[in-house]
Write a structure and sequence with these properties.
Blueprint lengths: L1 E8 L2 E7 L1 E3 L11 E3 L8 E8 L6 E13 L5 E9 L8 E4 L1 E4 L6 E11 L2 E9 L1
Antiparallel strand pairs: 1-2, 2-5, 3-4, 5-6, 6-7, 6-8, 9-10, 10-11
């Protein structure tokens, strides 16, 4: 998946998700098993990465889900997919502090969005790097 620039509001830069989402179910094939993410209204994908540069260090808020209609092994049609990043304790966006790394060969700085969360609904982890 790739985060694509959306807009700037004050000191906050907003990105939208693009790429492919996939879903599997034990002992059952799903058709389609994956879809191209679309954040247009009714497109099935919701999500945002918002980086707030007004804080030191910068912070982020992150959430995302993709849902589509699929046919399961028994021929039943139902929703597939779901949240691919959220706080399992609250079902809300995850938040964190950005970190940075420096490429030793080029000396360019890379921004890193990473973290993990767990709760009653399970656990999730994420890691994205921006050149």
């Amino acid at each position: 998946m790739t985060w694509v620039f959306d807009q700037v509001v004050g000191d906050v830069v907003h990105y939208k998700p693009t790429g492919t989402a996939s879903f599997s179910f034990p002992k059952c094939s799903i058709t389609p098993a994956g879809v191209t993410m679309s954040t247009v209204p009714g497109g099935g994908t919701g999500g945002e990465l918002a980086i707030d540069y007004s804080t030191d260090p910068p912070t982020y808020t992150l959430q995302g889900s993709t849902v589509w209609l699929a046919t399961y092994c028994s021929g039943v049609q139902a929703g597939a997919g779901g949240a691919w990043v959220m706080d399992p304790a609250t079902s809300q966006a995850v938040k964190g502090t950005l970190s940075f790394s420096t490429d030793p060969q080029t000396q360019t700085q890379k921004l890193i969005v990473s973290g993990s969360a767990s709760g009653q609904a399970g656990s999730t982890s994420w890691s994205f790097t921006k050149d």
